[in-house]
Amino acid sequence: MRAVVSLLVSGLSRIGLWGRGVVVAVPYLWLMLFFLVPFLIVFGISFSESIIAQPPYSSLVEWLTDEDAGTSKLQILLNISNYFRLGGDDLYILAYLNSLKIAAVTTLFCLLIGYPMAYAIAKADPARRGPLMMLVILPFWTSFLIRIYAWIGILKGNGVISNLLEWAGITSGPVEILYSDWAVYIGMTYCYLPFMVLPLYSTLEKMDPSLLEAAADLGSRPFKSFLQITLPLSLPGIVAGSLLVFIPAVGEFVTPELLGGPDTLMIGRVLWNEFFANRDWPVASAVAIALLLVLVVPIMIFQHVQGKQAEAGR
Amino acid sequence: MAGQPIRKPTRLEPWQDAGQTPYVRIEKVTKTFGDFVAVDEVSLSIYRNEFFALLGGSGSGKTTLLRMLAGFEQPTEGKIFIDGVDMAGIPPYERPVNMMFQSYALFPHMTVEQNVAFGLKQDGVAKAEIRDRVAEMLGMVQLSAFGKRRPHQLSGGQRQRVALARSLVKRPKLLLLDEPLGALDKKLRERTQFELVNIQEKLGVTFIVVTHDQEEAMTMSSRIAVMNHGVIAQVGTPTEIYEYPHTRFVAEFIGSINMFDGRVVSTDGDQVVVASEEAGCELLIAHATPAPAGSPVSVAIRPEKIALSKDPVAEGDGRNRTTGIVREIAYLGDVSIYLVQLPTGKTVRVTAPNVTRRTEMPITWEDEVTLTWRPFAGVVLTQ
């Protein structure tokens, strides 16, 4: 028995699959099963044809048997027209560009609001930082959908904001913010703000306060110190936060669906329509794959920056 | 104990000269954090070109005092004058002072050159001049070849020199150094001590150094202020502090010392006779501050000022002589430390140079020895 175990261990260790290897292998296996395999399935569907059947797409690989000739052949049909359709129809291109625009504006707003927040929390008394961070994370304890519905109540005509503006005498009638791009910006900025604040806070909090003292000592005024020391040193946090907001924001579906107007075109919505309204799974899959390709670029930039950071890490 | 003083004996002593105005004047400065008094009514005068050490343990208030000079903390009470100007309300970036931080605080996202150039850039110095002055500074700290490196690519000693170059490039009249050698290993520390003193003499900058290392303070400084619990216990040259400590705290903080409690028997001019049961003999101290007969005092005697002998010495009047048994010997190479137990139970520490080789040493464990010292070896401490 012991001999068998030791043989197994030595065999596994020879191929680097023991101890540390197993620890890494388990999550990799999980990712393979539930991310890579579904991805490959979607990738496969994107090359098939839409048919009225169950499931509603043709199979890529077919085994054709010709009874008369007595031959059989393996037929692989790759339908790339789905991808051509994406390029040919303005709808998809506009939806992609609009998604990128909405994600970019959301990221910018999150950065503009999140940076001062993270800065203030990082500079707060250490005893107060915990509760303040808690408040940032607190909204996660409520259902995401309920929070979006709450925004409908705030943004609609005769809603909280509208009434407030009217009461203050800024506007004379009800203001309808809901069902516009601005409602989407507000809702998405609200949703993704914690994802910006968390990485920013963690880089700002780690910063050695004596660096700012050294800058002041060498003649730098506080605002110049911020530009020359704090901002460049928080760049990794800015990049991480921006990508954490930007990447999911591009594919966002629920917020634009609930808060956006009929002309708020986003790729997530197009995807939904193709899948459920048109039941055109192949095109929907092609949209998803194209979206992935669009997002792989920022992810790779992120990885690159992280790698450089690790290299320069002290 | 401490290494050779690096200071040349011909140095000026501006604090002895009544006509000199101090460059830095600290007047009754108090700093409190909540209920905690970090610095308690400290007054100090520091003169141009001094290498002044603030020496004390942790929590003695030395770093707080330095940070108030730099402008990072404001005194709760009292005033600080630098070059005659009241520093109240003047922010760090407008003070004619630079500081070298204990952690060095090098900017990690900048190269060595950019770090050193930072201070000049803030003042809007012309680019060509910045380049020349940075090169000159890096040459002085022997880092010319490392200008393009980032701080994390340097060793601890190199970082320390970058920090020094950065704090000196603006040619401040006053440089504050917070534990400048704290992060270096022993050999490098000794070498850097010499370098610091050379640079300070060459540039004619006033240095104020915070340190907890008494040896460092002794070797480098022109004067030392020993701090304890936010109060200055004594200010003086290294020799004064070592040879004539004013208080028990100073005597015990600097080097090792033997303390004998006793009572004054008689005072004759500056000669004091103290009877000490602990010592087992009467002690005669020359050049002592006179104290009334009967008052309780401590007599402090440095270990190296006591002579050991195996032969009972009969001469003299029996003062400054006692006997004991050698309990411990620590051989340190150049010297040996002997712990001698007196019949009273008191243990006396004696250091003696190893003039002969160890194998021939005449004194060994459990030997009965006679301890003798001369009248000016001891110091009378009343507090």
Give an account of the 3D structure.
Chain B: Belongs to the ABC transporter superfamily. Spermidine/putrescine importer (TC 3.A.1.11.1) family. Chain B: Its EC number is 7.6.2.11. Chain B: Residues 24-254 form the ABC transporter domain. Chain B: One of its GO terms (biological process) is putrescine transport. The complex is a heterodimer of chains A (314) and B (383). With 314 residues, chain A is mainly alpha-helical. Chain A has helices spanning 2-14, 20-45, 81-88, 90-123, 126-137, 144-155, 160-167, 181-206, 209-217, 222-233, 235-250, 254-259, 267-277, 281-312, and strands spanning 61-66, 71-76. Chain A has two domains: 2-76, no CATH class; 81-312, MetI-like (MetI-like fold). Chain A has a two-stranded antiparallel sheet. In chain A, a hairpin with a 4-residue loop joins strand 1 (61-66) and strand 2 (71-76). Chain A is flat. Chain B is 22% helix and 33% strand. Chain B is an alpha+beta fold and 383 residues long. Chain B folds into two domains: 14-96 and 172-250, P-loop containing nucleotide triphosphate hydrolases (Rossmann fold, 3-Layer(aba) Sandwich), CATH 3.40.50.300; 256-381, Beta Barrel (OB fold (Dihydrolipoamide Acetyltransferase, E2P)), CATH 2.40.50. Chain B is elongated and about 80 Å long. The chains are: A mainly alpha (314), B alpha+beta (383). The A-B interface holds A 208, 210-211, 213-221, 224, 228-229, 232-233, 312-314 and B 70-72, 91-94, 97-99, 101, 103, 105-109, 118-119, 122-123, 150-152, 166-167, 170.
